């Protein structure tokens, strides 16, 4: 088979001229506040039949002291099912929707095709408000975290990162704290529940919904796990000042 050659030769000695810059048009979000304190931002974008939501808890940096690592562990446990839905059932429910739902100590996210978004959003809300917090899941995640710490014991990069942050910010600063095997071993399931009570709250929450949805439909979402989530004050910790004390913190 023969291929026809281009009629106009290409001069490869000259750089082609760039095309026109794309024009980005971003709508201002529609904003409202739920009775429990959650600030909701809705941005319509009907280019694809998909909706995404993210929930952010603005609690600022956290100092954990002797319980360093507890908020990360608590965030991992939010992905371990709810009080009424074991993890296997929860994960299967998300998979059947073809959705993405994830949780962390700082909030959660959910995305799905428009027709399935309401169900995916409800699952995210249930996981945030009604986590299972089983001893079995706690023991599993705690073991995984200890294994991860042991794997970094001989990693020069991991060790250098910890030392650099501790010297820069100080050991009592959120950016200078680091987990230890002994510290993780001492954590209990009650510590996880206490951290959840202190930090996971709607009082300083920001819910952003973007995609193929109208502000009216977003406001009408029937997610009791979000709308009926009782307000509670978020616990914010005092951050120590940085300075020469960080370098003389007695790290070595």
Structural account:
The structure is a single chain. With 252 residues, the protein is α+β, with helices and mostly antiparallel strands. The protein is built from 10 helices and 6 strands, in the order βββααββαααααβααα. It has a 6-stranded mixed beta sheet. Strand 1 (30-33) and strand 2 form a beta hairpin. Helix 1 packs across helix 7 and helix 2 (87-97) packs antiparallel against helix 3. The longest helix is centred in the middle third of the chain and has 17 residues, at 135-151. The termini are far apart. Mean pLDDT is 86; it is low at 243-252.
Helix proportion: 25-40%
Average pLDDT over all residues: 86
Sheet with the most strands: spatial strand order: 1-2-6-3-5-4
The end-to-end span amounts to: 74 Å
How many helix segments? 10
Descriptive key words:
disordered C terminus; six-stranded mixed beta sheet; single chain; alpha+beta
Strands, helices and their partners?
Elements: E1 30-33, E2 39-44, E3 50-57, H1 70-77, H2 87-97, E4 100-104, E5 107-113, H3 114-129, H4 135-151, H5 156-169, H6 181-186, H7 189-199, E6 205-211, H8 215-219, H9 224-227, H10 244-247
Parallel strand pairs: 2-6
Antiparallel strand pairs: 1-2, 3-5, 3-6, 4-5
Helix pairs in contact: 1-7, 2-3
């Amino acid at each position: 088979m023969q291929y026809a050659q281009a009629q106009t030769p290409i001069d490869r000695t000259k750089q082609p001229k760039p095309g026109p810059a794309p024009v980005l048009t971003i709508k201002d979000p529609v904003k409202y506040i739920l009775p429990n304190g959650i600030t909701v931002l809705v941005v319509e974008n009907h280019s694809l039949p998909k909706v995404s939501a993210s929930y952010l808890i603005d609690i600022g940096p956290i100092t954990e002291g002797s319980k360093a690592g507890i908020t990360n562990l608590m965030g991992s446990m939010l992905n371990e099912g709810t009080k009424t839905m074991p993890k296997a059932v929860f994960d299967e429910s998300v998979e059947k929707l073809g959705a993405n739902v994830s949780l962390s100590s700082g909030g959660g996210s959910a995305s799905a095709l428009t027709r399935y978004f309401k169900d995916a959003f409800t699952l995210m809300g249930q996981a945030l408000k009604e986590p299972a917090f089983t001893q079995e899941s706690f023991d599993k995640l705690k073991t995984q975290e200890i294994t991860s710490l042991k794997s970094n014991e001989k990693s020069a990069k991991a060790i250098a990162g910890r030392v650099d942050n501790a010297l820069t910010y100080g050991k009592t600063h959120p950016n200078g704290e680091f987990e230890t095997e002994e510290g993780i071993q001492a954590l209990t399931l009650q510590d996880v529940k206490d951290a959840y009570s202190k930090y996971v709250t709607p009082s300083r929450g920001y819910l952003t919904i973007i995609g193929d949805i109208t502000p009216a439909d977003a406001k009408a979402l029937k997610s009791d796990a979000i709308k009926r989530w009782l307000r509670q004050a978020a616990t914010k910790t005092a951050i120590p000042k940085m300075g020469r004390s960080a370098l003389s913190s007695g790290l070595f």
